[in-house]
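User: Could you check the structure of this?
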Amino acid sequence: MNSRPDPRRRRLFRFRRPSARTLRRGALAVALVVLLPVLAAGVALRLEYVGDPSGAGADRGRNAVWLGHAWVDGRRDAADLAGLGRELRGSGTRDLYVHTGPMEFDGSLDPALYPAAASLLREAHRALPGVRVQAWLGQVVSHHGDEGLHLDDPATRSRIAASAGQALAAGFDGVHLDLEPMYSGDRGFLDVLDSVHALTAGRGAVLSVATHQIDPLPSLHVPAGALFHHPKWWSQAYFGDVARRVDQVAVMAYDTAQPLESLFGGYVAQQTALALEVTPPGTDLLMGLPGYHTNNLGHHAWAETVAAAARGARLGLARTDPGRERFGLALYVDFHATAQDWAAYRSAWGPVDDGTRTSRDAGDHPPTKAAAPAP
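Assistant: Sure, the predicted structure tokens are below.
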């Protein structure tokens, strides 16, 4: 038998160079496969931003502001506090998160970082009656061998709790923990919250925490964390686990990479709804407002505005749980906020402010020594 291939048959399998038309069609097909989900997501977020936010009702008086380190290291004075009071007037602000750390990598807190805390607390309680001043304690969390807090170490967790106690002993009304980046499901973080909350509850103080965002798509945190080795989202269930362990959660609902105000506002509306679904009725839920103006791949200042975030949060509240009392907005951050940002914060639930007040100083950044990325 002749085993040689039939030359006529060979011609049937000869590779043919694709035509330019075929290449164009292939490229279009690939583009559609990639772009259609993106376009669909964009349309979905845009629709989230449509509606009447007035259904959320009026301001609950549970709003907050993140403040820089200059308030506790002596760079701010009584005149600055008076100016802050003018910015806060009519804003429904109940809590101030004052940067008091950072903690060391072992979880301890150096008292030399906040020499003016006593005078701040004394003056704040006098000038801003009813406003709680919380110690904002942050630090980076170690992952993949990087420097930072090792939350799997019981001794580190114990020192974090001791640092919280130290802040309460200094006179703060509560502790605001900002430990990031944090992977969804991290058990060490939950243990920290349990121990610190037992401490704050025993002293009649408040425990609040800055949180990551919730998966906008089911289980998105899994591939995102594996690909980028930097957690961006938590599962909704883990967010609920955190919210059940504290008195207050403040969602860092920014750095979303959204290119338009409407898409960013829709994203905040979605995040608000997801958070409301799993936050216990007895826990304050605050949605973060981006009062800063960095431009990079993750944050576009022209899109991520205070006004868009506030409207998105109210839309999410109106659709999901309009009767919820424990809800508010949190402005990040005082030393970057412009007059327009402050006006949008004050008017988030009510009439538009004339915007004539200004922030006095944009230079009181938290210290760089082992500082955690601010929320």
